[in-house]
Amino acid sequence: MSISLCIGQCGNQVGAELLALSQHGVTADSQSHRPCILVDSEPKVVSAIADRVAGVHVEQSGRGNNWAMGYHQTTNVALTARVLESLRKEIEPSRWHWRWPRKSTPRGDSRHVPQGVHSNGCIAPSLVGDSPLQNYNALFTLRHLQMYSDAILYKDNDDVARLVAHWRGATGGVSLTEMNRLVAGDWAGLFLPSDKRPFDLGSFVTQTCPMATVKFVDVRTAYYTQRPRFKPSDSRLVALLPSTDDAAGLAAATKQLVASYPYPATQSPCIGRSIHVRGGATAASLTSVVKAIERAFPAPNWTEQRIATTVSMAPPVATSGAVTVSANGQTNAIPMLSTFVSRAAQQLHAKAYLHWYKKYGVEEDYFHETLDACLDVVDAYASFV
To answer: Could you tell me which residue ranges the Tubulin/FtsZ GTPase domain spans (predicted)?
Structure first.
């Protein structure tokens, strides 16, 4: 088993959709307790999803869109202690304590929990966000993710909105609910157990993040069904394709999945790749899927050429099958990170908004250290990929 921490408004909204998916299809059971801990600085989101989870920790004041107030541990020490205590209570009875994913961007701390394999699912803000602190906040968060994660499942709001339209096959407005459901649907291809087997986070990290300095993984899932196309309002999943044949459905889903990536991502070397197929697959159809991913995401000569592939016979949720592709290469993360670095550097040069962070203990030197750390990530991808 794994233990999930859902932190903040975004983390809890996506976590709620994952919890809903876990109650349907092959993953459904009579379990009244879910190893999931909800954490937020205000109650509006958590209060709607607090049932059937391991713990809920909420404060009332919010964090004012300021990373220092939320994560620099000058104002939230008590909240952190309560969360770690809940985590300890979940870990101690479990034999699987060394693997736990987080749908969040928390600061790591191994003094109170076993040091093991950690993943974080994060969703970066839109590049047209309305907060002047956004560039600093994003870089501080990404620096801590890089420091304390073994794998970072990366999404960004701009790309998620584009993907909703891609799978829906229509233009028009995109709702926040649709975006949350799409992210949950993508990550469900990994996190939700199948055929009574848990997701093996340790193997996943080995397959997709062979280098400790490059760990941003783009995870996407396409679902196919033998029933007519679902409307987004009728399903917990957005990415659904109609099919009357499982083999044809798997091939079509893979083709659509590759088409959903930004063009540059499918033309650059990919240092880590994995495929998860649910609903079964013939040898021929599985071979075609692997070849399609090999063409879309070629591996550098110096790394493993074989793509790790897992097949589960049981179908996911209410669909006939699904294919999940995890790729660590030139995803949206690096262009986004470069943009945030450039913007934050300009603000820092002008010493803009520094006082908002200094009052919570973040000095100017930390800004420069963070810029350097994030530039190191960009440079690492440039040298390895």
So the answer is: 3-92
